[in-house]
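[Solved] Which block belongs to which protein?

Original post:
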Amino acid sequence: MKLKSIIIICLIAVFTWSCKDDNKTTGTDETTEKTEAEFDFNVEQFADLKILRYQIPGWDNLTLKEQKLVYYLTEAGLAGRDIMWDQNYRHNLKIRKALENVYVNFDGDKSTEDWKAFEVYLKRVWFSNGIHHHYSNDKIKPDFSKEYLNELFKATSTKLDGEAFDVIFNDKDAKKVNQAKGIDNVALSAVNFYGSNVTNADVESFYAAKKSPDPDRPLSFGLNSQLVKEDGVLKERVYKSGGLYGSAIDEIVKWLEKAQGVAENKAQGDAIGLLIEYYKTGDLQTWDDYNVAWTAATDGNVDYINSFIEVYNDPLGYRGSYETIVQINDFDMSQKMKVLSDNAQWFEDNSPLMDEHKKDNVVGVTYKVVTVAGEAGDASPSTPIGVNLPNANWIRKEVGSKSVSLGNIINAYNNAGSTGRLKEFVHDEEELALEEEYGQLADKLHTALHEVIGHASGQLNPGVGETKETLKNYASTLEEGRADLVGLYYLYDSKLQELGLVEDWKKVGMAAYDGYIRNGLMTQLIRLNLGDDVEEAHMRNRQWVSAWVFEKGAKDNVIEKVTRDGKTYFNINDYDKLHELFGQLLRETQRIKSEGDYAAVEALVEGYGVKVDQEIHAEVLERNKQFTSAPYSGFVNPVLVPEMDDNGEITAIKVSQPVGFPEQMLNYSKKYSFLPEVN
């Protein structure tokens, strides 16, 4: 499970990016690494998106063997990049190839508004790994006509016809993931996890018939396959060598085998070996064996996330999106934050959960601050800022989990500049001062508590199935909200000061509460078009958490809705009572998960997390017009460049930066396109 980067934007501030013109090129000219003081974190901004760079501090402190490990793992990740594109939508690869051919080869007039609109559309498609918005799931609408696109195709001898062409402009496949209530979510989602004639009922009946060899250790059925219906019969197309996405998976395996050869220790090498076996066979028992081994392999400077993991893109929460993050341990920061994982049992014992929902023995929770060296798939360009894995509840309970905070990603956000948006939406000078002094620390601690304590806490009642089965399309938002609530509950606790993590626990907690409520009830609405419902899982959870405590605290005026000079603000009058309300909601969300109470989660999410106050939404959008900074951000990746001797052996690996976003995207397409257009 991952904490998306968008959270840090709204809790700290929203940043300003400098725009710069892109000259079309297929080259890979790169800038060299600079010191942080000299480094320009900003790349460009377009539409509702901005592109940043990040550095890899400490790279030169790694041994050559460790650098090779990072390089091989990064190449393995990029080798599977196109899998994510095809998973997102069945025509994505075909559309991307056509648009890129135009971008590279068109030599006509590039000063027109139509051409500029074409460039922006392609960049948006690159950013989202497809034609649907990475966050809202809505199909991206081009600001040019089909006639103009046909002119570009004719001028560049580009071919794209039929449904793949028409879908760019029509209303078909309008939502990548549609989690609306009372519809067939599978049939009305464009994501390419299911055949066009597969329904919710098909998915539920197909997996209800599957039984794990060990009911206490259920396999992750559906995680690595596409479910299709042929001649009325449902069957899985498994992602593996020789199976679906096999040509890309073989490239992934090639680089993983190189990585295994330079593993830092036996445990790490054995885990990589199991991952290779899983890719070759598609066997879900091997996937569990790998996750157990990977979770236990905690020594070394280098670690990674690689495979089909998060299920947010599946409307029913079965299938994993391809994702990779390669990471280097930040030993100094990890040691400072290790105190959280060392005290995981204290947090569990002192939580407001019902006793039967608490774990008697929280095992194996490791927390590290890491430096990202490369990302691909569902983690790029839009990246999480924190991750806790594995996702299987039984592995968390028996073996433990790994939690990481992506330190250099957060640092890039913090160094990219800021705007006055924070001042526009805070209630008063006291709230502004708290945010400016304690907001970044509060955010880092919330990420840590969310990942380390939140996702690791609680347990299912005996006999209750996995949350994807019991809570269905609400499973992801319930879990993310539950983890958020764990973090919120403990952010306002003197234990943090006792552990030496803060100097003033109350002010850190107040800043955290201010930021969360401000975001959940107001500022995150800048990402929605007026009239839209909230659909993304994390965004829903922030709204239902905030709206629930606002309503339940109304009698005591815990959170006050203030109107001043025609503007709305939310002011927290009683932080102590808000802390209690967060605890009550945490207790209830854990009960819902532990008992598999579908009716309760539906009432919670639909009642508080989906519908938007249209008056406040219109006001927020109007107040936000004064700011030029886009609400979403993502990253280009540093480029690892190996230097070879005459025998072809790597003698050094240097870090450089891509010139720009289009240059990196075109280079990726040229170097890592291992899938056919139709799979």
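(Second protein starts here: sequence line, then its structure tokens.)
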Amino acid sequence: MSDPVLTDLEIAREAVLLPITEVAQRCGVDEDALEPFGRYKAKIDPALLTAGEPAGRVVLVTAMSPTPAGEGKSTLTVGLADSLARAGHRVMVALREPSLGPVLGMKGGATGGGLSQVVPMEDINLHFTGDFHAITSANNALMALVDNHIHQGNALQIDPRRMTFKRVLDMNDRALREIVIGLGGPTQGVPRQDGFQITVASEIMAVFCLSRDLSDLRDRLGRMVFGATSAGEPLTVAHLGAQGVLTVLLKEALKPNLVQTLAGTPALIHGGPFANIAHGCNSLIATQTARRLADVVVTEAGFGADLGAEKYMNITSRVSGTGPGSVAPAAAVVVATVRALKMHGGVARDHLDVPDVEAMAAGAANLRRHLHNIGTFGVPAVVAINRFGSDTAEELDWLLAWCAAEGVPAAVADVWADGGGGAGGDQLAELVADALDKPSTFGFLYGLELPVADKIRTIATEIYGAGDVEFSAKALKQLADSERHGWSALPVCIAKTQYSFSDDATRLGAPRGFTLHVRELLPRMGAGFVVVLTGAVMTMPGLPADPAALRMDVDGGGQVTGLF
């Protein structure tokens, strides 16, 4: 009888963790800069580090368009970092914090899996150090102050019909997408239509993740536009005078969180915007801090390269500048799986475990376009084939041969079963180290001087493969308003389904010539980009028919059960 397969939670519980003080000491964090949260997690105050200027090279992990269950990108990121450390590199991981929405929903957490996890995984996947609570509180404090201002006489002449900011909750709750508040008479506030977004879609989350320091955070919070006057003039947080209190609520959260992998590799986990509805990268402060403490920083961008990686290149890297603080990647890893290739080749989701090389060949166009897109930014790429138990030798050999024919280095990685210091990612780590030594000619896809509509068209045609972009009447008006208010010199953050290059989740593979439908534009002046809503993408997700939450519990000893 074979041994039972342990769950991710059971594997994490069996691990012997290093005290966080020892992890910090090993990676050069000064004692004065460390603020422990118990024995195994801590915050770092970058202002108190004596480490020099950022010098570590960044490896960006991205992927082909995923299946609904995901392709193990976080697991691969952690396993790659452990394998690079095993090869003698000074490595640090920089990852996003998980949102409770998907943790309790369907996709699961964001701490990796198997033997390639960041730990303590229960803490990280649940409340962690309270960063998301702080972001949620700051967002909702702003909206409480706005509605109170209206109730108390409305000196700013806020038009309740022109509100562009919403309340947030770190939960998948479709019932809160559209609500009416202030009902019940004069003492209950002013009635108006409102709604909730998930916390990770909040502009405050984006501001949090793109701020360089506390002063920059305060300035960005003050620039956020929450609504407009009855004459249509934009109103900012600075008009309300609320940037100070929002900074107070966020000042401790802004310090990156230090944890470790199962193999003891130091990891910074900080910030967590989704990549389909936000910009999809961990905080700039965390990545820059990691670059001060390590020679190689392995970070991850959400979903496929058409979403997270494009935004990392055009938004995060641009905000970081071109000097020593730049986080532009020196190399990229594109995660591919046999099952994702088969899905994009037309295989139904419930048949992805059935061997089918012909379907893989048909679906390879999706991977090819993602690789082409990475090359568009001048970054050398490596394909990481994340092995799943159902993969056959024939399928893996076919994919390796396909990559060789495309001229892209590739390796099969089995970091779920043989990571955490094992040999499962050694070949991949060797290829990534070689890629880091290649010259990078990194460049942005578009210049900021282009009109917003042209930036959208550039991404749609060159990254997605669209033939045209169609703007709704509302979006056209918002484009005109952006030009009138002087907001056109901003990058764009396109909110789009993660399952397709198009805005239609059912159009798999690598469609071309389609029309991208833009329904709304939301200038985010604090974050410094324009959010572009396409198709049917929602900024407040809903729970699936069988939520993962219903399998979670606590046993008689106080141990969590059912968490992956």
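Accepted answer:
You had them paired correctly. Confirming on the second one: The longest strand covers residues 515-524.
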